[in-house]
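Researcher: Please generate the 3D structure of the following complex. Treat every line as part of one assembly.
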Amino acid sequence: MTDVTLTVNGEERTASVPPETTLLKMLREDLNLTGAKLGCDVGDCGACTVLVDGIAVNACLMLAGQADGKKIETIEGLSTLEEYHPIQKAFEEVAALQCGFCGPGMIMSTKALIDQGEDLSKQEIKDALSGNLCRCTGYTKIIDGVIDAYEDITGKKVPETNPREAQSAA
Amino acid sequence: MRHRGKGVGCMWYPIGFTVLANPSAATVKINEDGTATLLTGTVETGQGSLTVLGQIAAEELGISTDDVHVVSADTDTTPMDTGAIASRTTYVTGNAIKLAAENAKQILFEVAAPMLDVRPDQLEAVDRKIQVQYFPQRCLPIADVALQAQFVMGRPPIGSASYNPPTVAMDSETGQGKPFSTYVYATQCAEVEVDDETGQVDVIYMSAAHDCGTAINPMLVEGQIEGGISMGIGFALQEEMLFDDNGQQLNPNLTNYIMPTSLDMPEIDVDIVENFDPTGPFGAKGVGEPTAVPTAAAICNAIHDAVGVRITSLPATAEKVLKAIKARDGGEQKALPAAE
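Model: Done. Output below.
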């Protein structure tokens, strides 16, 4: 057994887990944080995305021991009892999610992207979400939600592009 | 070199089961505070059906959607429903709910009529009030009427109803019949870029015009259409289950069963072509499965427009398209006059 101490959503949590335990399994089963979802368990779908020291990672591909001493953010840390996080609010307003299984991962990937503080284009948003699969929505409204959240949080604008011309130039 | 092409795909699609019974039942209860409780057996899978069904009940009762408490999908307590399949929820369950709400409202009208000195058929339910048609100032709050109905008249305003789409069985001799109660129609257009050196197909733009009857919740209709297009793009270009001779799936995970990501999605224009259907609840039909139907056809037609090859088995992977391009070029060379 390995003792792992994480700072999860600002709170220090410790658990004693077998060394092969993934970060996802520890979050879900030892810390009872079931927001990060177990989808494919091999790093394809992104449903388990959490932030480790601010970087979006697939929690199913990281051993709990590797995360020892690191700062973890999960979907549970975003909203308060009073209100949603601006990303969650934006997603709700445009009906970005349907079944919602990809939602925690999508929202955490979005947070990692926006927290970088860089200027974003629509293509960069698509790139950042490409590791999060969604079967329901066709991503269109999710991308709209990310744009709204980015503009709301940073006060910047995502430049308008004509995709039919942009694609051809690339 | 990359070639641009445009293609069109059209479709019609039926709502509900083919001839077979697929009933829905619903119960609507108007509470003494003017809110309503809707019991339905259908399942919310994220498509927003409970929102739409709540809107249907609210519209019929003249109250706000926020006032409708929807209780769903509990076989112990909710009325029977065939389920969230066959693109039938809005149409079939919606009709059952509209009828149930009508029945509950009728009790309110009968209770309110003597209070307003009119006949029940002169009343309407609007803006949380029961009012006399053409005389909106003669009105009573629904909450007051519901309270009167329950505690003075002894008639709790509850309505139940069921709906099964009317069909005519197909004649086994002639094949004639009316297998479905209603149909929806759609056209999608695709613009693609095909690389003639690799066979890679990129979908750049899709426009989708869908007739779904009355769009009760246009934002949810858009979500359904955009989702259907992503499934259609996967069907057209990427997704294929491969099996070996023993029936073992060769690509049982998302590493090699490829489905669209955010990078594969084109810009989408959704055009909701509203078309009142007199048999549907407030003219609505449905929009679930049909959204994925014409996408692959439109994309394959666009590939033909771009590079002149017909792909007749899906998915149109880069390998398949490149093979077809090479076969075409080979064929063209053979058509040249033989060397003299």
